[in-house]
Amino acid sequence: MPMRMTFHGAAREVTGSCYLVESAGLRFLVDCGMFQGGKAAEIKNRHMPSFDPEAIDFVLLTHAHIDHSGLIPRLVNLGFRGPVYCTSATADLLHVMWPDSAFILEKEAEWRNYAKHKRRGELKGEAAPLYTVAQAQAALKRLERIDYDQDFRPHARVRACFRDAGHILGAAIAEVWLQDGERTVKLVFSGDLGMPGRPLMNDPAPVEEADYLLVESTYGNRSHKSYEATLHEFVGALNETLVHKKGNVIIPSFAVGRTQEILFLLTEFIREGRIPTHTAIFVDSPMATEATEITLRHRAELDVDGRELLAWTRGNGGGPYIRFTESVEDSMALNKISQGAVIISASGMCDAGRVKHHLKFNLPRPECSVIIAGFQAQGTLGRKLVDGARGVKIFKEWVPVRAGIYTLGGLSAHADRDALLAWLGRFKQPPRTVFVVHGEEETAIGFADAVRKRFDWPVEVPVAGAVYVLEGGKARFEGIP
Ligand SMILES: [Zn+2]
């Protein structure tokens, strides 16, 4: 049987990363992520895995984000028996993220069953969660920790190596050398690539060759706003609120990655005297607190700026005032603070978690502000705020929006079009085929055109379920089974 690759997810969409490689009796996956975004995604998750999990030899996992890792507990529960290779930081993050994801899935299933029960007066065909907390715990035992730049052998015919992708803590580019009969074929999976020049994370490591390359394209059709301009805007919003209007600032934030970057920026603003020294910063999200602790444990993997700033913070009598709230009572107590506080809280899109309480208390106050620093999907509370809603519903109550709403466009954990092209530009010879993945359809097709135009390489934009034969030269589309 010739060597094959099947695109089970993140094909003409951003979520559900999952690629199956098969070669003469060997089968492995790169990533096995959850589809995210409404009902359609839920149905796809229930159909996964659409292959026999028992037949998979191993999984290479690029990073902890749920759209790359989130279906692995389900894979394990349905019969996958092999190891999951990832970096040590990724493994640490998964110890927090998988049980958290499972807890949410359990709650959703419970709620659905309860609603059904109420409607019909009886319980029929209970909705089971995609996986449970116990199943997530069991899956954690499969993780095998591998350092960056360290060759390892997941199989007698496979050599692999993780390179720093500069995206979030522990994120990796996977290089894979596969013995396929007489020849060695090199596959490269970009994973998610970070934006170069950002604090904390290193720039994505360059790769110089591949026979077949998969590259992400989340922002393949746009340029990020300049980072300096974004920081200027951020400082402006903080001072306007804290100094002039004497209110609080609420920053809804993703627990992993974004929270740490914001803490880093706030600390730097204080060090540079750009915002008041006495600014009180609160991180009010248990998961963000854990993710920050994990980041500090892995500080050797941060870039030079990140390490220097940590050293300054520690040598400065404790540095800025940063408190991590733990109990619900501590969280509630924050609502008694009327001014001078910056509250960073999850969830990032304001749809769940403690941030909803802070929004409820602070949105009606014109002296306060909400700073939105991350992507807000259609239909979320965060998106309504960005779109200028005059009022929103929180916990079934109507809350008028009188606070200032600032949207910062320039913070992103993904490389933009030019940065992606620059990363591709480091290749010393053309790959036989470049597969553009992990981008909305229009974006992926647009980015594929940009790659053809710039490098004149063979490029494919696989559709979901597509199978390609990787033999000889250019990859050949075989069909969708
Ligand atoms: Zn990611």
Q: Can you walk through the features of this model?
A:
Strands 6-5-4-3-2-1-22-23 form an eight-stranded mixed β-sheet. A seven-stranded mixed β-sheet has the order 7-8-9-10-11-20-21, covered by helices on one side. A six-stranded parallel β-sheet has the order 14-13-15-12-16-19, sandwiched between helices. It is 33% helix and 22% strand. The protein has two domains: 286 residues, Ribonuclease Z/Hydroxyacylglutathione hydrolase-like (Metallo-beta-lactamase, Chain A), CATH 3.60.15.10; 181 residues, Rossmann fold (3-Layer(aba) Sandwich). Helix 4 runs antiparallel to helix 5 and helix 4 runs antiparallel to helix 8. The longest helix has 33 residues. It is an alpha/beta fold. The chain starts with a strand and ends with a strand. It is built from 14 helices and 23 strands. Zinc ion binds next to loops.
Comma- or semicolon-separated keywords:
7-stranded mixed β-sheet; 8-stranded mixed β-sheet; 481 residues; Rossmann fold; Metallo-beta-lactamase, Chain A; alpha/beta; globular; 2 domains; binds zinc ion
